[in-house]
Amino acid sequence: MLSRPVEYYRDRAKEMFLSGYNCSQAVVMAFIDELDVDKNAALLMASPFGGGLGRLREVCGTVSGMCMAAGLMLGYSDPKAYSEKAALYAHIQNMAAAFKEKNGSYICRELLKGVVHTDGGAPEKRTEEYYKKRPCPQLCADAAEILARYVKDLQEEEK
After folding, report:
1. What does DSSP assign to residue 96?
2. Based on CB atoms within 10 Å of each CB, which residue in 21, 54, 79, 133 is the most buried?
3. CA separation for the pair 3, 71 (Å, rounded)
4. Helix ranges restricted to H, 37-135
5. What integer is the mean pLDDT of 28-38?
6. Which sequence spans correspond to the domains of the chain?
7. Using the 8-state DSSP alphabet, how is residue 73 labeled?
8. Spatial distance between the Cα atoms of 124 and 60, rounded to a whole number of angstroms
9. How many CB atoms lie within 10 A of CB 47?
10. What would the pLDDT profile of 58-69 be if each residue is shown by its tens digit?
11. Dihedral sign computed on CA atoms, order 99, 100, 106, 112
């Protein structure tokens, strides 16, 4: 499934965020070359999850992006695929736990504690100050690294 080193996905996710994609899009885009999905469709699908679900600061968008990419790599499409569903949910729970262990939470408002939040849907402009007060580029990198390591470990187990 994954042909590049883990560091590639980690660096790519951070790069994508710093180029202007939201956190969820950045993680999905780190894996786009290896996903069987149209790039534009993936960007559209991930777009509402930035800022912890449309800036609601719920589940971190990086974790949502990690889960979307994981679904495209490890997911199921048959509604009666109970064992596949159980396996996918176990994978997602393991990756979310790894993210929480590394960062203390997978809830956006907890990860951005101390960063002033404005009400409404309008995202803040991406300025130097914006990047200084947020751990988001690093969180994108962490989510991509966790997914890449997890998938590579599964690939090794299958050999």
Report:
1. H
2. 21
3. 18
4. 39-46, 50-53, 61-74, 82-103, 108-111, 128-132
5. 96
6. 6-158
7. H
8. 17
9. 15
10. 999 999 999 999
11. negative
